[in-house]
Design brief:
The complex is a heterodimer of chains A (about 110) and B (about 110). Chain A has strands spanning about 5, 10-15, 20-25, 30-35, 45-50, 55-60, 60-65, 70-75, 85-95, 100, 105-110. Chain A is built from no helices and eleven strands. Chain A is about 0% helix and about 60% strand. In chain A, the strands form two sheets. In chain A, strands 2, 4, 5, 9, 10 and 11 form a six-stranded mixed β-sheet that branches. With about 110 residues, chain B is mainly beta. Chain B has strands spanning about 5, 10-15, 20-25, 30-40, 40-50, 55, 65, 75-80, 85-95, 105, 110-114. In chain B, the strands form two sheets. In chain B, strands 2, 4, 5, 6, 9, 10 and 11 form a seven-stranded mixed β-sheet that branches. In chain B, a hairpin with a 5-residue loop joins strand 7 (about 65) and strand 8 (about 75-80). The relative contact order of chain B is 0.33. Classes of the chains: A mainly beta (about 110), B mainly beta (about 110). The interface between A and B is medium-sized, with 26 and 26 residues.
Chain lengths: ~110, ~110
Protein backbone atom coordinates (compact mmCIF):
# COMPACT_ATOMS: atom_id res chain seq x y z
CA UNK A 1 0.00 0.00 0.00
CA UNK A 2 0.82 3.66 -0.08
CA UNK A 3 3.32 5.04 2.40
CA UNK A 4 3.83 8.76 3.01
CA UNK A 5 6.91 9.97 4.87
CA UNK A 6 7.79 13.33 6.35
CA UNK A 7 10.45 14.66 8.67
CA UNK A 8 9.21 15.26 12.20
CA UNK A 9 10.39 18.76 12.95
CA UNK A 10 11.45 22.00 11.28
CA UNK A 11 12.54 25.22 12.95
CA UNK A 12 12.80 28.54 11.09
CA UNK A 13 13.14 32.20 11.96
CA UNK A 14 10.25 34.56 11.41
CA UNK A 15 10.48 36.14 7.97
CA UNK A 16 12.48 33.27 6.47
CA UNK A 17 11.05 30.71 4.04
CA UNK A 18 10.05 27.26 5.30
CA UNK A 19 10.27 24.16 3.16
CA UNK A 20 8.51 21.02 4.34
CA UNK A 21 9.27 17.86 2.41
CA UNK A 22 7.30 14.69 1.82
CA UNK A 23 7.86 11.48 -0.11
CA UNK A 24 5.30 8.91 -1.15
CA UNK A 25 5.67 5.44 -2.55
CA UNK A 26 2.74 4.79 -4.87
CA UNK A 27 3.26 6.33 -8.29
CA UNK A 28 -0.47 6.01 -9.04
CA UNK A 29 -1.27 8.69 -6.46
CA UNK A 30 -3.45 11.20 -8.26
CA UNK A 31 -3.84 14.03 -5.77
CA UNK A 32 -1.47 15.23 -3.09
CA UNK A 33 -2.57 17.43 -0.23
CA UNK A 34 -1.14 19.63 2.46
CA UNK A 35 -3.09 20.05 5.67
CA UNK A 36 -2.32 22.26 8.68
CA UNK A 37 -3.18 21.34 12.24
CA UNK A 38 -3.02 23.91 14.99
CA UNK A 39 -2.98 22.82 18.66
CA UNK A 40 -6.31 21.39 19.78
CA UNK A 41 -7.86 21.68 16.34
CA UNK A 42 -8.64 19.51 13.38
CA UNK A 43 -6.87 19.38 10.04
CA UNK A 44 -7.38 22.34 7.78
CA UNK A 45 -6.76 21.92 4.07
CA UNK A 46 -4.10 24.35 2.85
CA UNK A 47 -3.71 23.34 -0.76
CA UNK A 48 -3.55 20.37 -3.07
CA UNK A 49 -2.02 19.49 -6.39
CA UNK A 50 -3.03 17.13 -9.13
CA UNK A 51 -0.39 14.66 -10.21
CA UNK A 52 -0.08 16.09 -13.73
CA UNK A 53 1.10 19.43 -12.33
CA UNK A 54 4.64 20.34 -11.30
CA UNK A 55 3.89 23.41 -9.26
CA UNK A 56 1.04 25.26 -7.68
CA UNK A 57 1.23 28.66 -6.01
CA UNK A 58 -1.31 30.16 -3.67
CA UNK A 59 -0.28 33.44 -2.04
CA UNK A 60 2.60 32.57 0.33
CA UNK A 61 2.35 28.85 -0.37
CA UNK A 62 4.16 27.05 -3.18
CA UNK A 63 3.78 23.33 -3.77
CA UNK A 64 6.35 21.53 -5.87
CA UNK A 65 5.79 18.00 -7.15
CA UNK A 66 8.51 15.79 -8.57
CA UNK A 67 6.52 12.84 -9.81
CA UNK A 68 9.58 10.94 -11.00
CA UNK A 69 11.08 10.97 -7.51
CA UNK A 70 7.66 10.88 -5.78
CA UNK A 71 8.63 13.95 -3.79
CA UNK A 72 6.35 16.76 -2.69
CA UNK A 73 7.32 19.97 -0.93
CA UNK A 74 5.50 22.88 0.62
CA UNK A 75 7.25 26.22 0.71
CA UNK A 76 5.91 28.94 2.96
CA UNK A 77 7.31 32.36 2.12
CA UNK A 78 7.84 35.03 4.81
CA UNK A 79 7.02 32.58 7.59
CA UNK A 80 5.07 34.08 10.49
CA UNK A 81 4.59 32.91 14.08
CA UNK A 82 1.01 32.08 13.16
CA UNK A 83 2.38 29.45 10.79
CA UNK A 84 3.60 27.39 13.75
CA UNK A 85 1.64 24.16 13.51
CA UNK A 86 1.86 20.56 12.35
CA UNK A 87 1.75 20.09 8.59
CA UNK A 88 0.47 16.87 7.10
CA UNK A 89 1.20 15.60 3.65
CA UNK A 90 -1.41 13.22 2.21
CA UNK A 91 -1.76 11.23 -0.98
CA UNK A 92 -4.85 9.91 -2.72
CA UNK A 93 -4.79 6.83 -4.86
CA UNK A 94 -7.06 6.75 -7.90
CA UNK A 95 -10.50 5.20 -7.61
CA UNK A 96 -12.28 3.66 -4.66
CA UNK A 97 -13.64 5.55 -1.71
CA UNK A 98 -11.12 8.32 -1.87
CA UNK A 99 -8.59 6.43 0.19
CA UNK A 100 -6.17 9.03 1.48
CA UNK A 101 -2.90 8.14 3.20
CA UNK A 102 -1.48 10.67 5.62
CA UNK A 103 2.08 11.24 6.72
CA UNK A 104 2.88 11.54 10.42
CA UNK A 105 3.13 15.31 10.24
CA UNK A 106 5.97 17.85 10.41
CA UNK A 107 5.95 20.21 13.35
CA UNK A 108 6.96 23.69 12.23
CA UNK A 109 8.35 25.97 14.90
CA UNK A 110 8.72 29.64 13.99
CA UNK A 111 11.19 31.55 16.13
CA UNK A 112 10.40 35.26 16.54
CA UNK B 1 -21.84 27.38 8.51
CA UNK B 2 -20.69 24.81 11.10
CA UNK B 3 -19.02 22.34 8.69
CA UNK B 4 -18.09 19.17 10.58
CA UNK B 5 -19.01 19.08 14.26
CA UNK B 6 -17.83 16.42 16.68
CA UNK B 7 -19.26 15.75 20.13
CA UNK B 8 -18.03 15.38 22.77
CA UNK B 9 -14.72 17.23 22.58
CA UNK B 10 -13.19 15.40 25.55
CA UNK B 11 -14.07 12.23 27.42
CA UNK B 12 -12.49 9.99 30.01
CA UNK B 13 -13.69 6.41 30.23
CA UNK B 14 -12.89 3.41 32.35
CA UNK B 15 -11.82 0.16 30.72
CA UNK B 16 -14.87 -1.80 29.64
CA UNK B 17 -17.24 1.15 29.39
CA UNK B 18 -19.01 1.95 26.17
CA UNK B 19 -19.62 5.23 24.43
CA UNK B 20 -20.63 6.77 21.14
CA UNK B 21 -18.90 9.63 19.35
CA UNK B 22 -21.10 11.76 17.13
CA UNK B 23 -20.09 13.45 13.92
CA UNK B 24 -22.48 15.82 12.17
CA UNK B 25 -21.93 17.65 8.89
CA UNK B 26 -24.13 20.29 7.32
CA UNK B 27 -22.56 20.31 3.85
CA UNK B 28 -24.71 17.55 2.35
CA UNK B 29 -21.61 15.40 1.87
CA UNK B 30 -21.99 11.80 0.80
CA UNK B 31 -18.73 10.41 2.16
CA UNK B 32 -17.83 10.40 5.84
CA UNK B 33 -14.82 9.00 7.67
CA UNK B 34 -13.55 8.26 11.15
CA UNK B 35 -9.81 8.46 11.84
CA UNK B 36 -7.70 8.10 14.91
CA UNK B 37 -4.55 10.12 15.46
CA UNK B 38 -1.77 8.73 17.62
CA UNK B 39 1.70 10.19 18.26
CA UNK B 40 4.18 9.22 15.56
CA UNK B 41 1.55 7.41 13.50
CA UNK B 42 -0.34 10.08 11.60
CA UNK B 43 -4.01 9.48 10.88
CA UNK B 44 -5.36 5.98 10.46
CA UNK B 45 -8.75 5.24 8.95
CA UNK B 46 -11.11 3.32 11.23
CA UNK B 47 -14.37 3.14 9.24
CA UNK B 48 -15.94 5.09 6.45
CA UNK B 49 -19.28 5.54 4.72
CA UNK B 50 -20.04 6.34 1.08
CA UNK B 51 -23.65 7.24 1.72
CA UNK B 52 -26.63 7.00 4.05
CA UNK B 53 -27.12 3.46 5.27
CA UNK B 54 -23.67 2.24 4.19
CA UNK B 55 -20.53 1.61 6.20
CA UNK B 56 -17.22 -0.11 5.54
CA UNK B 57 -14.03 -1.02 7.38
CA UNK B 58 -10.86 0.99 7.12
CA UNK B 59 -7.34 0.13 8.25
CA UNK B 60 -7.95 -0.28 11.99
CA UNK B 61 -11.63 -1.24 12.53
CA UNK B 62 -11.26 -3.71 15.41
CA UNK B 63 -13.03 -2.66 18.59
CA UNK B 64 -15.19 -0.05 16.84
CA UNK B 65 -18.60 -0.02 15.20
CA UNK B 66 -20.26 2.70 13.14
CA UNK B 67 -23.66 3.67 11.85
CA UNK B 68 -24.90 6.11 9.21
CA UNK B 69 -28.66 6.19 9.65
CA UNK B 70 -28.91 9.78 8.47
CA UNK B 71 -26.82 11.35 5.73
CA UNK B 72 -25.60 14.14 7.98
CA UNK B 73 -24.55 11.97 10.93
CA UNK B 74 -21.85 9.35 11.34
CA UNK B 75 -21.59 7.63 14.71
CA UNK B 76 -18.54 5.81 16.08
CA UNK B 77 -19.13 3.36 18.89
CA UNK B 78 -16.78 1.71 21.35
CA UNK B 79 -18.58 -1.28 22.86
CA UNK B 80 -15.96 -2.14 25.49
CA UNK B 81 -13.27 0.52 25.74
CA UNK B 82 -9.64 -0.51 26.11
CA UNK B 83 -6.59 1.61 27.02
CA UNK B 84 -5.24 1.03 23.49
CA UNK B 85 -8.16 3.11 22.23
CA UNK B 86 -6.86 6.21 23.98
CA UNK B 87 -6.45 8.59 21.08
CA UNK B 88 -7.71 11.67 19.32
CA UNK B 89 -10.56 10.82 16.98
CA UNK B 90 -11.29 12.87 13.89
CA UNK B 91 -14.30 12.79 11.66
CA UNK B 92 -14.10 14.00 8.07
CA UNK B 93 -16.47 14.35 5.16
CA UNK B 94 -16.34 15.03 1.46
CA UNK B 95 -18.75 15.42 -1.41
CA UNK B 96 -17.65 12.54 -3.60
CA UNK B 97 -14.69 10.27 -4.11
CA UNK B 98 -13.09 12.74 -6.48
CA UNK B 99 -9.63 13.93 -5.53
CA UNK B 100 -10.47 17.56 -6.15
CA UNK B 101 -13.00 17.36 -3.32
CA UNK B 102 -10.66 17.13 -0.30
CA UNK B 103 -11.86 15.98 3.07
CA UNK B 104 -13.15 18.47 5.63
CA UNK B 105 -12.27 17.68 9.23
CA UNK B 106 -13.89 18.27 12.58
CA UNK B 107 -11.91 19.53 15.57
CA UNK B 108 -11.54 16.10 17.11
CA UNK B 109 -12.58 14.18 20.21
CA UNK B 110 -9.88 13.54 22.78
CA UNK B 111 -10.61 10.21 24.44
CA UNK B 112 -8.73 8.73 27.39
CA UNK B 113 -9.34 5.19 28.58
CA UNK B 114 -8.14 4.45 32.11
Amino acid sequence: GEDVEQSLFLSVREGDSSVINCTYTDSSSTYLYWYKQEPGAGLQLLTYIFSNMDMKQDQRLTVLLNKKDKHLSLRIADTQTGDSAIYFCAAKLSGGYQKVTFGIGTKLQVIP
Amino acid sequence: NAGVTQTPKFRVLKTGQSMTLLCAQDMNHEYMYWYRQDPGMGLRLIHYSVGEGTTAKGEVPDGYNVSRLKKQNFLLGLESAAPSQTSVYFCASTTTGAGNQPQHFGDGTRLSIL
